[in-house]
């Protein structure tokens, strides 16, 4: 993550999002399908309370399908429609416009009744860094990027990206911060690659990831690292993986840094399969 979030920056980011909200009909809140709660801004409900919203569970290609379905239900129960998408390949993107039209039907019908000329739905994409905002804008825009702000007589500095005839996106997304003062959130963001390793200790991230996998996906760990049984202690699991993968230092000691890099890299590149690091059951009471 290149952005350093100091209180001043947070206030500025929030102000910028609030300004953009005035221009749009609907918010597309982008979250990482593997960690939908940890990859969102803790104040998001308050910040966009006045606008309809669709939660887009992006990178669904990397998440556990059955858990993504549970997340969609979770948001539905909170009256927030959610869709699973893969902005990289474009899977699920067609549904976005259809759903936005349904959600805004009443507003647009009212506008038509007042004699206001029909126009495209205006949307803002919001999300934390690295969640896939640029990828989604580029994918939706295809090659039809029309910077309508350049037209004579259009005074606003904001520019719009056309998505077919029915949707327009603000070309700069709203960037918000995650709840990174929470260490567990930090570990999840680091494991999925949303924040860079240097911010947190890579060995600690790996301990978190291995503990999680041991509890939730033990067979994936066994298969990937050729283990008949998973050791009780996490340090022993580290040792086994290090030994099997040749992450050694002179004298036959395990190189924990090298082992950590290997494990985190393999998780991020889906070598252990599609993994969700959060499920709605953990958040029901909140
Ligand atoms: P941002 O604007 O929100 O900061 O995110 P951006 O679009 O730059 O996306 C961050 C990374 O996530 C990019 O990878 C992008 O290709 C990847 N990405 C975005 N959407 C999806 C998706 O639906 N599925 C998958 N699998 N990947 C997605 P990158 O540039 O290669 O960076 P990195 O992977 O090295 O972090």
From TrEMBL:
Keyword check for Transmembrane helix: no
Residue sites binding GTP per the record: 58-61, 130-135, 174
Main location: cytoplasm
UniProt entry tagged with the keyword Nucleotide-binding: yes
UniProt keyword terms in alphabetical order: Cytoplasm, GTP-binding, Hydrolase, Nucleotide-binding, Ribosome biogenesis, RNA-binding
SUPFAM superfamilies assigned to the protein according to its UniProt record, in alphabetical order: P-loop containing nucleoside triphosphate hydrolases
Cell location: Cytoplasm
Single GO MF annotation: GTP binding
GO CC, alphabetical: cytoplasm
BP GO terms, sorted: ribosome biogenesis; translation
Stated family: Belongs to the TRAFAC class YlqF/YawG GTPase family. MTG1 subfamily.
Subunit description: Interacts with ctc. Interacts with the immature 50S ribosome subunit. 2 molecules of rbgA bind to one 50S subunit.
Function: Required for a late step of 50S ribosomal subunit assembly. Has GTPase activity.
Record-given protein name: Ribosome biogenesis GTPase A
Source organism per UniProt: Metabacillus sediminilitoris
